[in-house]
Amino acid sequence: MDIINVRVNEVDKKLLESYAKSHNKTISDVIRESIDEIIENEIHLKLYQEGMKELEKDNATYTLDEVLKELGIKKEEL
Is the dihedral of CA 34, 17, 21, 2 positive or negative? Predict the structure, then answer.
C-alpha cells in the first residue's frame, strides 16, 4: 500500500486522534473512509443530477406493478 502524507494543524490532528480512538480505528482508517465517502457521495450526486435531467426530458414514470407487468414478472417471483 502506498503512503500519502497529509499536513494538518494541531487542532485537526487532535480531532482526528480523538475521533479515531473513540471509534476504535486508526487515523489512516478514518481518513481513508472519509475520502471514500466523499467520492461516493459525489458519484451519487452526479448520477442523481443526470437522472433528474433525463426525467425533465421525458416525464414518464412507472409504478412497480407496471414495470413487472411489462417484463412479465409476477410479484411472487421477486
Answer: positive
CA–CA distance, 45 with 2 (Å, rounded to integer): 29
75 neighbors 67 (Cβ within 8 angstroms) = no
Q: How many C-beta atoms lie closer than 10 Å to residue 31's C-beta?
A: 16
Asked if 31 contacts 16 with a C-beta cutoff of 8 angstroms, the reply is yes
For the record, the C-alpha cell of 59 comes out as 416525464
Residues 57, 47 contacting (CB under 8 angstroms): no
Of 6, 3, 31, give the one whose Cα is nearest residue 17: 31
Q: pLDDT tens digits, residue range 4-63? A: 999 999 999 999 999 999 999 999 999 999 999 999 999 999 999 999 999 999 888 999
